[in-house]
Amino acid sequence: MQAQHNIHATDAQKVHISRLLLQANLAYGESNSPVSLVQRVKARYECRGYLGEILAQEPGNTTALGLLGRVELDEGHLEKAHTLFTDSLSQDPAQPQQFTNLGYWAIRSERPALAEQYFIQALEMDRQSAAAFCGVAHAKRLQGQFDVAYLHYRKLLEMGLEWPSVYSGMLTCAEQLDVQKADSKLARDAILLLRHKGLPHQEIGRFVGAIIRQQYDLENPNAQVALDAASEDELLILALEKTLMPDPAVEELVTLLRRAIIAEVAQTVELRDELQPLALALAIYADRTGYALTAEDDEERLVSAINESICAQLAMGEEQDGMIGSLIISAMYGAMFHQRFAVQLGRWNLVDWPVALQSVMAASYYNRASEEAIKQNFDEKAEELCLEKTDVPQAWPSWSKLAYRTESSLKTMMATELGMNTDQLPDTLRIMVCGAQSGQRAMELAHYLKDVEVIAVDESLANIAKATRLAGEMGIDNIVFWPWSIAQRFVADDHKVHWIEIGRLPSAKMTDVSLAALVSSATGNGAVVHMHTAVDEQTDGDKQIRHLVAQHNLKPTRTALRQLRKMVLTNRQDPMWQSLVSEIDFYGLGGCRDRWFCEQDSRQLKELMALVSNEVEWKLVKARDTDGHSLATKPVQQQIQAEALGSEVQSLMGQGLSVYFQRRR
């Protein structure tokens, strides 16, 4: 009777363990679902509780050991995770799931080649493992095998596995592909990526531009482009709506299509319905470039006449329907906010316009009006008052979506990735991003790190206004955008920050700004400074244009910027200009203005490097190369010290490293 009772007890125990495993898996699934970080941490805690109960009853339960290892991996405890995965495999070596887990452990440990081996072992045991197949894609991407990784991501999407990490990985690989011929599959991929609302489409401009260049045979001087065919090209229209394509041949195509539309309008005195989607896309694209696209004199004259007609129509109280075509044509050549009729447009709200027109009206009029209102809050606005409307600087870079990241906490990252003790840190940490430009990186920090408040600083009032507007639209309320003057007053009032990130360096005209002094004053014991050791915008073409600017005392007007761009594009086969023409900044007037009239002051970086080279005050806690791989810190520290002592031979300037320093006291 006693033996029979034990058997029943064991069966009951197995049922109970099975139930606990089910609950643990559900909790773990919730801990990795798109809910708030607080909910995810709570679910992870619950998962730990269930697993602890299982392992108390059955210490060798392979599934529980593996799942606990994934919890430890998610929390950044790499050694604990590895031990649990290997303990599980020692109990049962035929577990594809544990080899998959080890693969992701190896990725987190920055060992992608080892990760690939583990994923392949998992696939040998289970050919249907999507997690392992996706892991191979990630490992290939991290090893720089972008074409192979891209094909893996495509296969996963074809299988219906539309995970955010798959889309994100495919998008990263796409921009690295060398597209040499027209390929219908690549075109379909591009359309799929551009249709996806949650992706940072600004990051695939080269990829999409290369496909369009091949499809339209733009390298052939005799290629013919049919306006009607272009107006039905979904890829072209999506690309114009979502990206900026850094390709001179594509820019010529865009300019040609715009000219063809206005030429037809000049003949027929109307904008055909069939051409409206293309015309609207061209208007959005022109706005994204800051109206960098050049126009012939006859185009300018016709657009001027159309703008005069709109003024007259508005003065006569004409309804919207009679002006739609004229407004679209006007928006293809200039911002409606800059036109004489801008004030009259204010009688309508954005939602009062036809849905198809709203994105153009927002970009060309309403967003600019909102940003202008934001600028009025800052003293720096006075500098713009003497400028022509079309010469007022435009925000740069132009972006639309934040890059995909998993929500985390800065304290966790400081502990796991930098090996810092975070016990004494407050619940909410303060980050300062110096040189935030139009704010994408700063907003990603604010959005994905749930224990921070962010102060983003920039010298461009246009950048501050655009970023403030976008943060409001996205509901990101733990970030502010300030000019340097306010940031300096904030620090002078003895406020401290826990993390400083250096983006674009201040220009030489910011004579009252010292990054080294700001960092020294704003940081206390344990604060981190993250910077890069390279200064961009230093091509031969940039240097030549800056020489011309100084020689002829040029001002950053729209006319001057367009003329400089035209000179470069006309002579783009000259080796002097080839590097410049491949830079995405060149394809927006805001980017050109920054490069040529607001050059980054490399002395600011040298002074900051000299500050952190003091080992008594600062400790180098992490260094990454241009591929994102971690480097041994001691040799890098020695280079920094040698440079501070005047040794140019070992200079880090220009090497493109990403370095993190912690203040010791």
UniProtKB/TrEMBL annotation:
UniProt keyword list: TPR repeat
TPR repeats by residue range: 62-95
Top-level taxonomic group: Bacteria
InterPro entries listed in its UniProt record: SAM-dependent_MTases_sf (IPR029063), TPR-like_helical_dom_sf (IPR011990), TPR_rpt (IPR019734)
Residues in coiled coil: none
Name of the protein this chain belongs to: Uncharacterized protein
